[in-house]
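User: Structure with iron/sulfur cluster, tokens only please.
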Amino acid sequence: MDVIVSRSYPERAEARAFEDAVGAAFASETGSDVLVVPHLYHIAEQDGVWAELAALAGPLMVLCWMYPRPVEWVLRRHGIGEVGLSVADLSTFDDVAQCLDACSAQVDRTPCDGSIRELAADISGRWHPVLDYSRCINCGQCLQFCLFGVFALDEEGVVRATEPDNCKLGCPACSRVCPRGAIMFPLYRKDDAMAGAPGQFVTPDDAARRMFEQRTKRLHKQAPADDDLDALIDDLDRLAERGL
Ligand code: SF4
Ligand code: SF4
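Assistant:
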């Protein structure tokens, strides 16, 4: 089985040592082939590493520094893990043995070489929405709401984040208005549900609905401005402070 270890970003020496130790343990203890990659959320959309991971034949175990649900959907967006996918958050383990214990039941022991390979990829500090298609009902509200052209319909009429890097750093607004809690921002640490924590989903409240109505009315009347975005982020911060 292939095990993918996604590095921290920005890189931290302590995290890197843990990633290396976990990779070595999986290779030697479970005989898995280990691929070490840069932080999966930050790899450039068009980077060739996605095709390399999509070409892996069997089920995958992915170890990363994020909640599992958004990572699963980042990978599925690139056609990775269709045969089988397990994801674990490295930050939930105290040490390598605990990680190995927790994950080894999910590791397919089909004999591999026990190799470790580091894949290079183009990364930068990205910020973009991740859509969970097990929850999305294709209502199009995110597409209507976003001021920056992040979403569009594909040729089959399905809402996709076609221009993810148009998303504005720190803006998680569409996540708050999505009626199904299908939009995640895995690095948004002010709100675990928005970050995709297990079993937690954002539900739009009255304030978010009002924000949606106000913004969509304005969207068709004028071009987006930086002030607009700042006001939107302020609105969201106020909602978060009030625990809404
Ligand atoms: S708002 Fe949510 S449910 Fe509706 S299309 Fe967008 S992601 Fe899907
Ligand atoms: S967070 Fe804001 S800028 Fe990014 S996709 Fe959603 S609405 Fe658009």
